[in-house]
Amino acid sequence: MLVAALASARVAHAQQKPAPVPTAAPTTDPTAPPAPVPAPTAPPAQAQVADPTAPPAPTAIADPTAAPVPPQPVPSVPVGKPPPVDFPVIELVTMGVGARIWERHGHIALCVRERDPRRNTCYNYGLGDFQHPLSMGWGFFRADDSFWVGRQSPSVLVTIYQAADRDVWAQPLPLTADEKRTLLARLEHDVEDAHKHYSYDHLADNCSTRVRDAIDEATGGKLRAMREPSDGLTYRDLARKGFYGMRVALLITDIAMGRAADRVPSYYDRMFLPDYLREAVTRLWGVEPIAVYRRHGPPPQGDGPSGRVLFLLIVLALTAPAWLARWRGRFQRTGLWFALVPQLVLGLVLWTLAIISPLSYVRWNESCLVLVPLDLLLVVGPMHLRTRYARGRIAMLALVALGLAVGLLRQPIWFIVAWPLVPALVVGLGPRWWLWRGRRTGDSAVAG
After folding, report:
1. Minimal CA–CA distance to 413: which of 254, 241, 249, 239?
2. How far is it, in rounded angstroms, from Cα 381 to Cα 443?
3. Beta carbons within 8 Å of 3's beta carbon, 6+ residues apart
4. Would you place residue 10 in the very low, low, confident or very high pLDDT band (cuts 50, 70, 90)?
5. What pTM was computed for the model?
């Protein structure tokens, strides 16, 4: 049980005294003859034998005529036993990162330890249908109450994260009796069927923010009142820290998380990550985390390549058929399709999510200015309309690049600007002979 591990950790070996080892008294056989008395032997020359006729040497015994020493008070708690526990004990339990993409920012729960261990329970705000990630992900983007809070036994909770080789820490919260009652009432309210489901928001409403808000409400706003110097890290920076070593996940944070993720959170808002809520509890109450389980695998990476340069090279490779076909004068339409199809699919996904999702960091996505599904017009329709559209896209992408350069646009998406730009240049800024050939032969010059 988790709570049993925490209890034993608090009464460490510093409080435990080794029990004296009893010595067995020798026994004699009453029927055996008395043993002969050994003959006296001369003592060694080096040893000094006391004279039996001499008076006894003085010992370190207090003078009987001195005033008696008053008796010392007996401690109320016997040595070697833990101090009395004020039940119930509410503990903040945080988990380290895991291998899956949704495990890369840790997890958190609140566990309650009762006088009767059979009543111990944990409140887990991160329950979801992880066996069906596509439907769960769709519910996340649609804010369809796809997550919920539920009770778990401490042993089950620890077993799950130990099997995944994820760190587990616990911190007993030094709450008053009134604060405990308020917090327990909030937890019981949240697990009721009418209230347990909620719409997951990675930045504003997740497992960590719900635990944070419950503790803050019970303590009269102590967490919200904390002020710590800011290091200037944005929501995006904090999210990227959990994805080091995963280039695809890092690129998703750049392309799919909109400009709302480029705000610098307050210290209270930063507790949307479990690590910072654990840190805040340590700073506020001086409660150091107790390691219930430590991972055996390598520690999480603290830094790593962003994948942006690699993605830019992939973009240049994908768009190469467009300009190579133009240079050779053959299969130009095929080259354009090869360059456009991947970005059209990604642009359609981003625009769809921006339309259907109420999440601010999904809806207001600057990547939608770069990856536009209407770029299909570069290969569909009359040549003169494609040329006009291409030139308009070139001007639009130039403005996007300028906005990124001056800081008007905040997302780090400079590495995807070349993706639609190359096909637009191929169609919109062709040489005179290519434009003349297109007018003379219709669309045959770009039909491939």
Report:
1. 254
2. 9
3. 89, 91, 111, 113, 117, 120, 154
4. very low
5. 0.74
